[in-house]
Amino acid sequence: VKRFFNLLFDPHKKQQLLGDLNPLKQVSVQIKDGSDRFVNKYLRFSFSRISNEKGINKILTSVNDITEEIRLGLELEKATKKSDQQVELLTSLINSDTEMLPLFINNAYEKYHSINQLLKSPSNTLFDYREKANRLMALIHSVKGESSALSLGVVAEMCHDFEQQLVNLRERSNLSGNDFLGLTVKLDQLLTYNNSVSYTHLTLPTT
Predict the structure, then answer these.
(1) Rounded to an integer, what distance in angstroms lies between the CA atom of residue 40 and that of residue 132?
(2) DSSP 58-102
(3) How many CA atoms lie within 13 A of 170 on its CB side?
(4) Greatest pairwise CA separation for the chain in angstroms
(5) How many other C-beta atoms are found inside a 10 Å radius of the C-beta of residue 67?
(6) DSSP assignment letter at 205
(7) Neighbours of 140 (CB within 10 A)
(8) Residue 44, SS3?
(9) Does the predicted model carry a pTM greater than 0.90?
(10) pLDDT tens digits, the chain, 207 residues: what are they?
């Protein structure tokens, strides 16, 4: 920001170029609301030069609340991603082995159930947590392999993300139950997508 302010006073730098370099176009801040709770807001700082006969002598600053703009952008991105996944899902199902797909859906549900039971099971020692991570890895890797064989790329990618989080956990020198909480979110995403695969498969016209 300090370097950017120095550029603002440089008459050789064009205003449009400086707008592109502005590091404060989207700033996340925590602001108290009426109930003294902090809410997240996004602000945009804009800068305009004010010159006199000697050159640039002042900078006019304006601040705009762009929270709603950011929120709508995130919603659009989420909707676009979901639409892309649906298109990929349909393409995958059309090109997949229709006889093997129901078997995959059932196997995936069984493994997700086992994963859920493992995540809920108590552990007391570092060895127990590492063993839990290893068993989870074996289950999710199996789903990943089966989904790849059926060209279900989205499922395989989600399983890969699950695996990467497990890899990170296994590399830690200390583990607790809270470290596995993020996996429950990923498992829920996999279950939701498995439901979509099952529903879409049942509603596709037979040939």
Answers:
(1) 36
(2) EEEEEEEE-HHHHHHHHHHHHHHHHHHHHHHHHHHHHHS-TTTHH
(3) 14
(4) 81
(5) 16
(6) P
(7) 25
(8) strand
(9) no
(10) 889 888 888 888 887 778 888 899 889 998 887 777 888 899 999 998 888 888 888 989 999 999 888 888 887 777 666 656 665 655 565 555 566 778 888 899 999 999 999 999 988 888 999 999 999 999 999 999 988 888 788 888 889 999 999 999 988 888 888 889 889 989 998 888 888 777 655 554 454
Phi, psi (deg, nearest 5) at residue 66 = -110, 25
DSSP notation for 105-133: HHHHHHHHHHHHHHHHS---SHHHHHHHH
CB contact at 8 A, 47 and 64: no
- The contacts of residue 7 (CB under 8 Å, 6+ apart) are 13, 18, 21
Question: Tokens 């404060």 — which residue?
Answer: 24
Cβ distance 174 to 126 under 8 Å? yes
Give me 152's structure tokens. Answer: 């279900």
**DSSP letters for 140-196:** HHHHHHHHHHTT-HHHHHHHHHHHHHHHHHHT-S---GGGGHHHHHHHHHHHHHHHH
